Every structure is written in structure tokens, then in C-alpha cells.
Amino acid sequence: MDTAPSDALVFFGATGDLAYKQIFPALQGLVCEEGLNVPIVGVAKSGWNLEQFRARAKDSLEHHGGFSDANFARLVRLLNYVDGDYYDPQTFQALKQALGAARRPLHYLAIPPALFAAVGSALAASGLNENARIVVEKPFGRDLESARALDRTLVQFFPEDAIFRIDHYMGKEPVQNIVYTRFANANFEPLWNRNHVRSIQITMAESFGVQDRGAFYDATGALRDVVQNHLLQLVANLMMEPPSGDSHEATRDQKAALMKAVRPLDAASLVRGQYRGYRAVPGVRPDSPVETYVAVKLYVDSWRWAGVPVFIRAGKHMPVTAVEVIVQFDKPPRVVFSEELSHGYLRMRLSPDVSVAIGLRMKRPGERMVGEDVELIMSEQPGSLTPPYQRLLGDAMRGDSELFGRQDIVDAQWRIVEPILKDPPGCIEYEPGSWGPEAANTLLGDYGPWRDPKPAPGA
Ligand code: BG6
Predict the structure, then answer these.
(1) Which of 103, 111, 197, 316 sees the fewest Cβ atoms within 10 Å?
(2) Which residue's CA is the closest to the ligand 1 atom numbered 12?
(3) Domain spans in the chain, listed from the N-terminal domain onward
(4) What digits encode the pLDDT tens for the residues 382-392?
(5) Region 273-296: what's the mean pLDDT?
(6) What was the pLDDT predicted at 238?
(7) Ligand 1 atom nearest 351 alpha carbon
(8) Which is nearest to 124 in space by CA: 91, 156, 93, 157?
(9) How far is the CA of 265 from the centre of ligand 1 (A)?
(10) Checking DSSP bridges between strand 40-44 and strand 105-109, what pairing results, if any?
(11) Class of domain 170-384+421-447
């Protein structure tokens, strides 16, 4: 693996929404906290000049990045901007000039995948792919076939170890903490299998709708937007075998093995919902069949996990914004006390605040052997620290690919959802602010109910 650091950072789509909300704050963090000191060139087709681009960066930091004059001054001196069409060779000549003496640029494609081929080939035609790295944003394809086609395009211009497929969930501290907690403690391993775990629930709830992303969302839907990528990554972190060795590939090898063992979904294991009012969002088709909520039941066909259902749900316009994982354990094998016992569980809250808690049954004070369910919070933090894009772009600049997708993992993730992409069951309408269609409760059967995440403190 090539570990020489990249000596310039180019980002395409520099005037877009992702850049505004995530990339400028990440760049400020890299420059001011991690000492990044290389040219940073934004590329876009907006008819802007450098001053406008700098003003956009400032505005972004004021709204999303903790603006300070001193930090902004450090970032702004590195910023440059190239305006031009991605299909025009002149744009890439201008980029080459802007890169000056840099010889190992990192190109970050924060643009729609339909443009990847044009940008990749134009970079190659101007020699800007030499010793370069390329970071591509999700969605990586729309299905297995298009993901493979995209990959064939990229590998024409960049070797596999220079391609970084970003899934920002992988850069989140609490998502990495799942792996850390599992493998830095010996006490989870004996319990972490079909003999003790009864089911797993993952909830990704967002209290807002699709906002100004109607056109994007209506071509995507919840399954492609967050389940095929972010939430399956959580499944991998929760359920993969311990990595052997400490190479960058060791973790990805285990993720690939786990993803390949997930049974493809079928229509009976899926509930789709659409919030009332979605079709009126600008950019959304008036008769849109696209889901803003999805609940799935999946199984991992391995010795460790055979028969343990994993329930995943993700929805817009839910009652709260929170991401939580519940690992539910079996009940004791025999009744000792004359009361109905509940299932113990481990709860990992990943956002917006971060906590790890364990649900237990404890005795109530008094003479009788009668208990109550309690939750012991083992760790609690207000939020996650380093923004995920800062972590991931920093890793990519150093050539560290551990937290990025690999083609076989991406393929396996598409293979899981593929059977229901072409002919999905219809959407059930739900009220904004509710927990989605009632049918999602039926999906859980005896494993219900869903454990609804609580609102964040102060929300
Ligand atoms: C993005 C999805 O990938 O992840 C969005 O496109 C979603 O629809 C977002 O809201 C959630 O990520 P985060 O980090 O904001 O919780």
C-alpha cells in the first residue's frame, strides 16, 4: 500500500451542499487541528471567482463549523478555486496550473456518480491521475450492476488502492467504538452469538423530512440512501469476526466475510412507508412510489448468527432524531422467581448524544424476591468529537483505507438489497411525527416491540 501523504486536496462539487455543510468544516479541522498544510482546490461550475468561493467557505464555517477569524485565516490562505465544466479539458488545464508543484493530489468527487466517468477520464487525460488518490461519495451505484460498471470506470484510471469509497458513517467515533468495545473487552465475546443473543434492532430515526433534497431523494429512497450503506456498515461492525492481524485489510476482510453471509432480502422481510406530504416536496414526483421509511428483517447465515434476526428501520419525519442499536439477550433458561422476566440488552446510542448502557433485572428493596428492569449507563457523552469527514479525508490523505468501502464489500451490500430493488412492495402512508407504518411492528413478531430511542437531552 502506498502510504506517502497526498500533497494537495482537490474537491469537485465545491459549491454544492455537501461542501457547504460538511467539507469546509472538515477542512478547517484538518488544517487547524491536524496541521494539514497543502493547496486545497475547489472545482465547480458555478461561474464563481475565488472571492465568492472564499465567502462561501466563510459562510459555511459560520453556520456549520465553529467560525473564528484565526482559524479561517489559516484555511483561507490554502484555498484556491477553479470554475469550469467537468466535460471541458480547459477546466483540467486550469486545475493543473492551480496545483502548481503538487505531484500527489487527492481528488475528492463530491458530485453525482453520473459525472464520475467524465471527471476520471479528464483527470487521466491531463495526467492528474498519476500518483493520485480518488475519493468517491456515496451512492456508489444504484444497484449491483451499476456499482460494478462504476468500478470498472474508476479502475481504468486509478488502481484499487488509490480508490477511497466514502461512507461517512464509518468515520463516526461511536461507530468505531462498536468495534473497539467488542474487541477491547473479553466479556462480550462469550455472549456474542446465537446462544445468548436473541435479536438485534437498529433504529435510525430523523425528525425532519427530505428538506431541499427532493429530486435526489426521489431517485434514491431510504433503502438506498441509508440502509444499503450506513446501516449495513453498522451490522458489519456489530457482527463481524475479530480481525486477525493489524493490516489495513484485516478489518475489511472480516466485513466482507460478514456481508457475504447476509441472506438477501425478500419482500416478506420488508416494510416500506412514505410520510404524508412527501409528494408535495419540490423535486418529488406527484405519484412518487419512493419510501421515506423502511424496516427490514435480515439474517446472517453463519454458525455464530444462525437464526438471530436483525431488524433495521430508518425513517424521515420520525418523532426524534437518534440512532440506536439494541442487542437483546435471551431470558434465563428457567424461572426461579415467580415473576415474568424481561430480556436483558445492550444499548448503544450512536447519535446525537453517545452512550452505552446495559439493561438488567435487579431486585427491588424488600423481603420479596421481586425485581424491576433497570438500565445501567456505562458511558455517556454529549456527542461525537471529530466530524466524520475530517477523520475520513485525513485518512485518505495518508492512504489509510481501513474505514473506506472495498469493491467486494460494496458488491455484497448491493447483493443483499438487490432482490427487492426491482419489484418492492408498495409504500404505506404514515403520519409525519409518528414511528412509521403499523406493519413494521408486525415484522418484529415475537421479537417486538421496537425500542424507540428517546429524544436527545434538551431536544
Ligand atoms: C446521508 C443521507 O448519507 O446520511 C441523509 O443521504 C441522512 O439522508 C444522513 O440524513 C444522515 O447522516 P448524519 O451523519 O447526518 O446522521
Answers:
(1) 103
(2) 169
(3) 8-137, 170-384+421-447
(4) 776 789 999 99
(5) 98
(6) 98
(7) 16
(8) 157
(9) 23
(10) unpaired
(11) alpha beta
